Each structure stands twice: as C-alpha cells, then as structure tokens.
Amino acid sequence: MGDKNNNINFIQPAVYRILDANLDRAREGLRIIEEWCRFGLNSGQLANECKQMRQELAGLHSSEIRAARDTPGDPGTELTHPKEEQRSGIEQLLQANLCRVEEALRVIEEYGKLYSTQMSADVKQMRYRVYTLESNLLAYRRHQLLKRSHLYLVTSPSENLFNVIEAALQGGLTLLQYRDKTSDDSIRLSYAHKLRQLCHHYGALFIINDRVDLAVAVDADGVHLGQQDIPVAFARQILGTQRIIGKSTTNPDEMQRAIQEGADYIGVGPVYETPTKAGKAAAGVEYVQYAAKNSPIPWFAIGGIDMNNLNDVLKSGAERVAVVRAIMEAEQPTLITQYFHSQLTRVQTLRSIEPQVVQSHV
Ligand SMILES: Cc1ncc(COP(=O)(O)OP(=O)(O)O)c(N)n1
Ligand SMILES: Cc1ncsc1CCOP(=O)(O)O
Ligand SMILES: [Mg+2]
C-alpha cells in the first residue's frame, strides 16, 4: 500500500493508473530491447540485464496498481504518432524503445513519490542503469560491426564525395574513415557531420582520421591514429571504451605496441607504394604475412590495393582490406564495393572450412 495520504477519491486512482500504464510501458520496451540483445547481438550479459530490470519492475507492479487499470476508459489508447509506425532500421527501433523506457521510468519516479518513496528511489536507480545499458548496447554494436567489417573505405577529397560514399554504402560498405588532410576545420566539421549521418543511415560505422576532437564533435564511432598522432591512451581518455580506436602500423614493433596500447584494430601497410601516401615506403606482403600469424585484433591491409592485386594480398593471409583510390576513383563504386566484398567473403568461407590451407587456396 502507498505511504502517502492523498485525496483518495480522485488523485489516488489516477496515480495508480499512471503507475500501471508506465510500469507496463517500461517492461514492454525492455522486452523489445532484450530480444535484440539475445537474438541480434547474442549477448547473454546485455539480455540478462534487461531481464533483471523487467523482473524488478514486475515486483513493483502490485495488485492494487493493476486493479486501477481501466483500458476502455483510457483516451490515450487511440493516440499514436506517425513516427511510431515507421522505423528506418534496428538502430532507430532500439533508440525509440530506450527513450520509451527512460521516459516511463521518469514518470514512475515522479508519480511514485505520491505512492511510495522507496519505489520512486528504486526506479530512479533503474533509470541510470538504462542509461548505462544504452551506452553498453551502442559500444557492443560498434565492436560487433567492426569485427564483421572486412572492407574499409578511407576517403580522399572528391567533388563527388557524398555520391561516391553513398554508392559504396549501397554496395554494402559497413566501415568508412573520413580522411581529409587539407580542408579547413569548418569544412571538415560540416562534411564529417554529414558523413556520419549518411553512414548511420546505412548502418555503417563512421571513423575520423587523426582528429579526436572532430570525432567527439560529430559523435563519430571512433578515430584512426597514426604513429605521429596522439597516443591511443590519451585518445582513450577522451573517447572512452565505447568508441573505436584504430592505429596505423608498418612493422611488427609498431603492431605489438598498438596492441599493448589497447587499439581496437590496426592498419597494416602500406602493402604497396601508393600515390595516396606518396614517399612512404612499402612494408610489403611480408608484413601482411606477419600480421596474419600474429595479430590477435582485427587488422586491415592497406596501401595500393586494387582489384588486380587483391588476390595476392588475400593469399598473403589478409581477410580485411582498406582502400582509398580503388573505390574513391572508381566509375562504379557500388560494383567495386560488391566485388571486394565477394572476394573477401570467399576467403573467409574457405578459411572457415580449412584454416590450415588458407594461403594456397585463395
Ligand atoms: C586503416 C588505416 N590504416 C592506416 C592509415 C594511415 O594513417 P596515418 O599513418 O596516420 O596516415 P594518414 O592517413 O593520417 O595520412 C589510415 N588512415 N587508415
Ligand atoms: C592512408 C594510407 N595509409 C597507408 S597507405 C594509405 C593510402 C592507401 O591509399 P590507396 O588505397 O589509394 O593506395
Ligand atoms: Mg594520421
């Protein structure tokens, strides 16, 4: 029973109805999120956290609160917003349900003060747990998507920047790095902002080259750092564990250091000399072979890779590649992206069947 004396005839039934509706709303929203954690992300830990909160809410949903339910007399059952009917993707669906849960908990917290101060305090704590769940969910999704990404497009300045990138995204690209060494920051900021939106619309990750500040400013999924950029540990302090940090490496020592520093992935190259990074010596396919044997984290062969030499890079043990010109300068970026994907999928399939004969069969 509630511990507050209110106008029993009028206020109490209304408060009970509000608590009833919002307890249901929060539990339903959590259930929707839980299903994705369980079946979409295969994360028992995240699914359990949702389940735990649902059960705690069920414990608060007392019979006197339930008894106040009056669905036929609720004018709100007919009210929907057109946006509730559309979800452009899983991202939006999860976001909408997280908001729904957070709002419902806030309502319970406030109206709960008129019913039970303990209930209100418990639900307040739960609201913070949902915020944590939200960031863990996002981080988990980012890292899963990184692991699933085998083609990485690094941009170069282009009059057709957005069209080319959209075409690549339509070809199935899931990882993009915005690399622009010459523009003013105002341009970089505005392009980065648009590119993040475009990538997220297609469910792809968006990484920024060199600049941790820009990554924070546009809420990018991460940053790519070179040997001359700030150390991974500093970037981590700013970006936290939720965001992805990549590091360029050209030799085994740099690779080991990047791994120790806590990079989420590494660039391995330049495999071949390339005008995109003029003057930088090639590390060669030997370094790709070394990475194939020694890198415990995702790594992308980069530098001079195109459709003609892709097979050699794959034969050297690569399963992930990063390219600039091969797609940025392609006449048909969608087709080239699809071609890269088909080859990368082919080697993954072969290696999953017979890992030990990897290099001779590609
Ligand atoms: C995936 C990937 N690998 C390597 C690089 C090169 O980074 P860096 O050495 O910092 O050189 P710039 O790209 O900044 O010129 C990269 N960008 N991406
Ligand atoms: C950014 C970078 N880092 C190492 S090689 C490289 C450029 C790769 O460009 P391309 O794919 O056009 O050779
Ligand atoms: Mg750099």
UniProtKB/TrEMBL annotation:
Q: Which GO terms describe its cellular component?
A: cytoplasm
| Gene3D superfamilies in UniProt | Aldolase class I
- Binding-site residues for Mg(2+), renumbered to this chain: D210, D229
Q: Does the keyword Acetylation apply?
A: no
Q: Name the segments for region: Thiamine-phosphate synthase.
A: 130-362
EC number(s) given by UniProt? 2.5.1.3
Which residues hold 2-[(2R,5Z)-2-carboxy-4-methylthiazol-5(2H)-ylidene]ethyl phosphate?
Answer: T274, P275, T276, G304
Protein keywords = Magnesium, Metal-binding, Thiamine biosynthesis, Transferase
InterPro entries, per the entry: Aldolase_TIM (IPR013785), ThiamineP_synth_sf (IPR036206), ThiamineP_synth_TenI (IPR022998), ThiD2 (IPR041397), TMP_synthase (IPR034291), TMP_synthase_cyanobac_bac (IPR016229)
Segment Unknown: which positions?
1-129
The residue ranges of the ThiD2 domain are 17-135
Quote the catalytic activity from the record. Answer: 4-methyl-5-(2-phosphooxyethyl)-thiazole + 4-amino-2-methyl-5-(diphosphooxymethyl)pyrimidine + H(+) = thiamine phosphate + diphosphate; 2-(2-carboxy-4-methylthiazol-5-yl)ethyl phosphate + 4-amino-2-methyl-5-(diphosphooxymethyl)pyrimidine + 2 H(+) = thiamine phosphate + CO2 + diphosphate; 2-[(2R,5Z)-2-carboxy-4-methylthiazol-5(2H)-ylidene]ethyl phosphate + 4-amino-2-methyl-5-(diphosphooxymethyl)pyrimidine + 2 H(+) = thiamine phosphate + CO2 + diphosphate
Enzyme class at the top of the EC tree: transferase
Q: Which SUPFAM superfamilies match?
A: Thiamin phosphate synthase (SSF51391)
UniProt cofactor note: Binds 1 Mg(2+) ion per subunit.
Needs which cofactor? Mg(2+)
Q: Which residues form the Thiamine phosphate synthase/TenI domain?
A: 151-327
Q: Where is this region: Disordered?
A: 64-87
In which pathway is this protein known to take part? Cofactor biosynthesis; thiamine diphosphate biosynthesis; thiamine phosphate from 4-amino-2-methyl-5-diphosphomethylpyrimidine and 4-methyl-5-(2-phosphoethyl)-thiazole: step 1/1
UniProt lists the family membership as follows: Belongs to the thiamine-phosphate synthase family.
Name the job this protein performs: Condenses 4-methyl-5-(beta-hydroxyethyl)thiazole monophosphate (THZ-P) and 2-methyl-4-amino-5-hydroxymethyl pyrimidine pyrophosphate (HMP-PP) to form thiamine monophosphate (TMP).
**Entry protein name:** Thiamine-phosphate synthase
Primary gene name = thiE
